[in-house]
Design a protein that fits this description.
Blueprint (H helix, E strand, L loop, with lengths): L6 E7 L6 H6 L8 E6 L6 H8 L3 E4 L5 H15 L4 E4 L11 H9 L5 E5 L5 H4 L4 H18 L11 E4 H6 L11 H11 L4 E5 L13 H22 L15
Parallel strand pairs: 1-2, 1-4, 2-3, 5-7
Antiparallel strand pairs: 4-6, 5-6
Helix pairs in contact: 6-9, 8-9
Length: 251
């Protein structure tokens, strides 16, 4: 715990058998109270590896629910367990667990209710091997998103995030897509609800075992990002209504 706040790490997993141990061993258990691993019907031995490592909360989907669907299971279970702060950590070791403390303290001290670990701040992305085409796409989408959402984030596409339980309860993330666009829908909902998002710089690693999506799915994702941002702006202007932004908290 930090400041009497229960800290829960959630790991949405898919074929993470080879990298799970290295990721898990770097989690700072002096402040992390529980770890939840949700396996999205992996084809390898991710679940068996999680149990071997001693992870008590292991949830296995009977069918593949998608990246967004997997996160929904993570957050719902974390809230059921009474988490005050929830950190999403990918078990593929693309992001270092050593930043958990920094991210959690920002929330525990009331500085920001949500913290993203950005690969773009500093030189973490290209230094860690991010393909140049992904880097350019990331920067382009982020630029457009910042204009449409009236924000100044360095990136919207990191998979390393920390949330206060209050923020998770304030947005209807369960109504979001089960695919990769879930991440951007959730950030847009958080901004729409009146919350601010902080960032810390994060190194990243690209290697064969790290998760990635192909060009076709990346293109679909990019178009989805633009759609979410445009809908956000039109809803803010009062020109349309969307179930995506049906829950709003006055701040």
């Amino acid at each position: 715990m930090i400041h009497d706040k229960k800290v829960v790490v959630v790991m949405p997993a898919y074929n993470a058998e080879k990298t799970l141990e290295q990721t898990y061993n770097e989690i700072p258990f002096d402040i992390v109270d529980e770890v939840i691993l949700t396996d999205d019907c992996s084809k390898d031995n991710t679940v068996e590896e999680a149990r071997r490592l001693g992870i008590k909360e292991v949830i296995r989907h009977g069918r593949n629910k998608g990246y967004g669907g997997n996160q929904k299971t993570c957050y719902n279970r974390a809230l059921e367990l009474g988490a005050d702060i929830v950190i999403m950590l990918h078990p593929d070791y693309q992001y270092t667990p050593k930043l958990i403390e920094s991210m959690v303290y920002v929330i525990a001290n009331g500085v920001y209710p949500v913290v993203l670990a950005s690969r773009i701040l500093g030189k973490g992305a290209l230094k860690g091997g991010m393909p140049i085409i992904k880097y350019v796409a990331n920067r382009t989408l982020t630029f457009i998103q910042n204009i449409l959402l009236s924000q100044k984030l360095s990136e919207y596409h990191t998979g390393y995030r920390a949330f206060s339980a209050e923020t998770l309860r304030a947005v209807d993330y369960n109504s979001n897509s089960d695919d990769f666009i879930f991440d951007n829908e959730m950030l847009a909902q958080i901004f729409y609800a009146g919350y601010e998002i902080g960032e810390v710089t994060c190194p990243t690693k690209y290697f064969p075992e790290a998760s990635s999506i192909n060009l076709k799915r990346s293109s679909i994702y990019g178009l989805g990002v633009l759609r979410v941002s445009l809908v956000y702006r039109l809803c803010k202007w009062g020109l349309m209504r969307s179930s995506l932004f049906g829950k709003k908290i006055g701040k």
